[in-house]
Amino acid sequence: MTTTIQPTDVMVTCNGMNFHYLDWGNEGAPVMLLLHGLRGHCHSWDDVAARFCGDYRVLALDQRGRGETDWAPRGDYSTDAFVADLEEFCYTLGI
Fold first, then answer.
1. Edge-to-edge, what's the strand order for the sheet holding 31-35?
2. Total of domains in the chain
């Protein structure tokens, strides 16, 4: 599927690291936050986001050490670290 809707590239600081995410817009709509797998990145969701961005504000996050997001400064890629990042990301964006 080819999409004509292009997301906005955004950077935000959470837990002392720079996180990159894509935002397909649609302010005021319910938020759909897409998280890639261990070897993925935010663009893994481009086609999925294109299908849902009419009804949702679709966000796709590059998690720590992936895509354009910073590598973990102490090499912490534990589940607890990923959860803490997600909590801080949601808090920072107010979602």
1. 8-14, 17-23, 57-61, 31-35
2. 1
User: Does the predicted model carry a pTM greater than 0.85?
Assistant: yes
User: Does residue 12 lie in a domain region?
Assistant: yes
Q: Structure tokens of 20?
A: 């990159």
Report the sign of the C-alpha dihedral through residues 63, 6, 53, 12, in that order.
positive
Model pLDDT for residues 12-59, shown as the tens digit of each residue:
999 999 999 999 999 999 999 999 998 899 999 999 999 999 999 999
* Domain encompassing residue 44: 1-70
**Alpha-carbon distance 73 to 18, whole Å?**
11
DSSP 15: T
